[in-house]
Design a protein that fits this description.
single chain; mainly alpha; 74% helix; globular
């Protein structure tokens, strides 16, 4: 039982991204608590179904067939969190009593360095890390109740009409139904806990722990909408969960992780060079973008999870390793749907999101020939 609980907390913390911690702020501002409710139901059910529909053997086969896409998913996720930390921490420190934005950038860099060292720790310690991160979130929630207006119930409606939420729901549902299948941390748990134990861990994670985290998101989203109220405790929650997620995905990309097997994986020197370039780009974001563009930059970073990766999952459902034709089909469908999702969400013409969803679903109708898997060495 303790093993199931430990893996459940690991799943909940690894899936508490800067999407779950920050997108509710924008959704409640647009549609009130109804936007958060749609987000939570689609998110929790999509993640839970990975553990309920995949066996350990099916998970191993899924990783072997889609290793390149899953590597890309983890890399994009790490970059997303890195950029978000470099956006939000300098902004907060510049508007706090410190009034020194560069200190927030230094703090973000230190957090990412700590995630790198955390990723190198043995697997037996990860349930304890998940327990510590969960305890930090619970403590932040409790202590936030003592800081004035940090936690507030959001309004019943927002600045966007309810019909716009109806148009956006298919895109939200499709993204959260598909993206968990590319998450290597999910596959690690499913392979480590075969049978009913693994399914129980997913149910506990996304039926209890993760919804509790998201309820905290709902309440501080209401506080940010009402008075823009920040607290140190909220900052602790955001940073602890982000570091855990980054470290969990880094762990899978490092030697011994699920993504380290297979051909053509970059050498350590190449990985270090890419990490340095990515970090340099992230450092420049808060200084290159005015605060008014933070939401637009954030929404652009969400686009892969609403469009690019769902198309990949639908194409991968045909089975077998990826062929050149499948890669080309993936790129072509992404290019075709990109204008609709850009105008639909960024341009707030939400009815166009239905066209983006329709193009994404077309991927299921396009056959891509399977390539026979390479023979395994004896």
């Amino acid at each position: 039982m303790l093993k199931i609980v430990g893996r459940a907390l690991f799943l909940a913390c690894s899936w508490t991204w800067c999407i779950g911690m920050w997108l509710p702020v924008y959704l409640t501002r647009d549609w009130g608590w109804h936007g958060w409710a749609v987000f939570l139901v689609c998110n929790a059910l999509g993640a839970m179904l990975v553990g309920l529909t995949l066996s350990a053997a099916a998970s191993r086969q899924r990783v072997a067939d889609n290793l390149g896409v899953m590597r890309l998913f983890s890399v994009v996720t790490i970059l997303f969190h890195s950029a978000w930390l470099f956006m939000i921490l300098p902004h907060l420190s510049a508007h706090s009593a410190i009034r020194q934005g560069y200190l927030g950038g230094i703090g973000a860099a230190l957090l990412l360095i700590s995630a790198f060292f955390l990723a190198r720790t043995p697997g037996k310690w990860w349930p304890l890390f998940a327990l510590f991160t969960t305890a930090a979130t619970i403590a932040a929630w409790i202590l936030s109740t003592r800081t004035g207006h940090t936690l507030q119930l959001p309004p019943n409606s927002g600045v966007q009409p309810p019909l716009a939420l109806l148009f956006a729901t298919p895109t939200i549902l499709l993204g959260f139904a598909c993206c968990p299948h590319l998450d290597l941390t999910f596959h690690r748990v499913r392979q480590e806990l075969p049978g009913p134990a693994g399914a129980a861990a997913f149910v506990l994670a996304f039926g209890v722990a993760f919804p509790a985290f998201m309820l905290y998101s709902l309440l501080y989203a209401g506080g940010l909408i009402d008075r823009g109220s920040w607290s140190l405790y909220l900052l602790i929650h955001l940073t602890c969960q982000s570091v855990f997620t980054v470290a969990a995905h880094l762990r899978e990309l490092m030697p011994g992780g699920l993504a380290s097997y297979g051909p053509r994986w970059p050498t350590r020197r190449t990985q270090l060079l890419l990490a340095m370039l990515a970090t340099s780009a992230c450092v420049m974001i808060p200084f290159a973008l005015p605060a008014v563009f933070f939401r637009r930059a954030y929404e652009c970073m969400i686009a892969p999870y609403a469009l690019v990766f769902p198309i990949a999952v639908i194409l991968a459902a045909q089975g077998g390793p990826w062929t050149r034709r499948r890669w080309i089909t993936w790129i072509a469908l992404t290019i075709a749907a990109l204008p609709f999702i850009a105008l639909g969400y960024l341009g707030q013409q939400h009815e166009l999101l239905l066209a983006s969803t329709a193009i994404t679903l077309i991927a299921a109708l396009i056959p891509t020939p399977r390539r026979a898997p390479a023979p395994r060495p004896a």
